[in-house]
Specification:
This protein is of the alpha/beta class and 423 residues long. The chain has a domain of 221 residues: Rossmann fold (3-Layer(aba) Sandwich). Helices cover 35% and strands 22% of the residues. The site of S-adenosylmethionine (SAM) has 19 residues, from α3 and α4.
Length: 423
């Protein structure tokens, strides 16, 4: 629900309370930027969020993150206000670096589909497709191998704005709908049907290969810190020194999510940790994937930057390829948190329906899946020295240990009945 401030300055409305500010890893210094990005119609997400805090108290980071990324009026992914991806945007992702990435995933997934006995009908599902580049590269390979009969494509994308960008790349044309489980559909040049949804739950129940590249890092997190022997939830409050700014505070009393964390997730393996970031929304998506894989068959591949439970203070923002203060100008910078793969694996195990492979490093996966061989073919066909440089630089960026090679991880989910066969 959006709240608008009615009358009176916010400064006068700030409650009198004292929350303890939370120290975090040093953030980039505050810029001279105006505290809030305003849309042309005067709407300010920052103002809305502060009014909400003033009315009912500090909010979890998850609430802030969800609003900042996907608020329909001003969320980072929801508007055409800025370039998100690419060298002119705020960050670049592997599929945008080079076609090799999507092509290798296509060949890998085709191979898995063969192992399943080439079931038809079947679906490719992508969660959070960005500009649609990876799916475009995947579909080109499927077309080359003439695997199009019985295949349909299903994209889970919150942002109608990005759905238009994806449709322009993937489809000859597309149509919007308001009365169906999908809100857009189109047809590719190869005649494949493509559908857009806001939730994975709405995608038809058919054998599926599910891709999620840099999707889970965008899902809202709750954050917990240990102070002495007790855990607190980190919340976002209005700054007491400057009522036009936000600050992090520690919860004074137990919050519902802190109780959930303590009762169900805080295990002995976390004894040495002082920070834990949990995305309960990620767990819901994993549960839905588990239900689908066990009922209809299929597999899922999650690719993201993350750690194995050894980090916990990773919530941050990116703007123009640089770290940015996540509490400044909400809606103007991307918010993200590393994926905690140890928790993701725990979520998978809890479903009782899936088994997992990995996480393995991007470098190891791409090498095993034939990325180097594909690079050589592309280099042989390159028409200029410049193109050869672009291809080799991109390959290095994707695979070098000190670039994306080890920070990015591949994690596969399969129906638990297949565990014996895969081991
Ligand atoms: C970091 S981008 C990654 C884009 C693309 N996969 C890539 O790697 O280039 C995150 C994508 O997920 C979408 N997204 C974020 N939150 C979402 C949600 N809750 N449900 C569906 N899509 C979401 C964004 O609109 C965007 O397309």
């Amino acid at each position: 629900m959006n709240l608008r401030i009615v009358g009176g300055s916010l400064a006068r409305q700030v409650r009198r309370y004292s929350y303890k500010p939370v120290r975090r890893v040093p953030l980039p210094p505050a810029s001279n930027a105006t505290p809030d990005a305003k849309k042309a119609d005067g709407f300010s997400l920052g103002k809305e969020l502060r009014a909400r805090i003033v009315a009912s108290g500090p909010i979890p980071i998850a609430t802030y993150m969800k609003q900042v990324l996907t608020n329909p009026a001003a969320g980072y992914y929801m508007t055409a206000n800025h370039n998100v991806f690419g060298s002119r945007g705020d960050f670049i992702t592997s599929p945008e670096i080079g076609q090799i990435f999507g092509e290798v995933l296509a060949v890998w997934s085709l191979n898995e589909w063969h192992k399943f006995g080439r079931p038809v009908p079947f679906q490719l599902i992508e969660l959070g497709p960005g500009k649609g580049t990876m799916m475009n590269d995947i579909l080109r390979v499927y077309g080359k191998f003439k695997v199009t009969a019985g295949l349909s494509v299903h994209l889970v994308e919150m942002s109608e704005h990005l759905s238009k960008v994806q449709a322009a790349l993937l489809c000859r044309s597309s149509t919007e709908y308001g009365d169906k489980p999908f809100y857009r559909s189109g047809v590719t040049a190869d005649g494949l049907k493509v559908y857009w949804y806001r939730r994975l739950e709405d995608v038809p129940q058919v054998f599926s290969i599910i891709f999620a590249h840099e999707f889970f890092d965008a899902l809202p997190i709750h954050k917990f810190v240990k102070e002495g022997d007790s855990w607190k939830e980190v919340l976002i409050d209005v700054d007491q020194q400057n009522s036009e700014k936000f600050r992090f505070v520690a919860s004074k009393a137990d919050t519902p999510m802190l109780r959930l964390f303590l009762n169900s997730y805080c295990s002995e393996s976390m004894a040495d940790r002082n920070h834990v970031e949990i995305s309960f929304e990620s767990e819901s998506v994993i549960q839905e994937i588990g239900n689908r894989l066990s009922s209809n068959g299929g597999l899922a591949l999650i690719v993201d930057y993350g750690h194995l439970g050894d980090k916990g203070d990773t919530f941050r923002a990116f703007r123009n390829h640089k770290l940015y203060n996540p509490l400044e100008e909400p809606g103007c910078a991307d918010l993200t948190a590393d994926v905690d793969f140890s928790l993701l694996k725990q979520f998978c195990d809890r479903t009782g329906k899936i088994f997992t492979i990995g996480p393995t490093s991007q470098r190891a996966f791409l090498e095993l899946a034939g990325a180097k061989e594909r690079l050589e073919v592309l280099l042989a066909g390159a028409s200029s020295e410049e193109e050869r440089h672009r291809l080799t630089d991109g390959f290095r960026m994707l695979t070098d240990e000190d670039q994306m090679g080890s920070r990015f991880k591949f994690f596969a989910l399969l129906p638990k009945e297949l565990k014996e066969i895969y081991n």
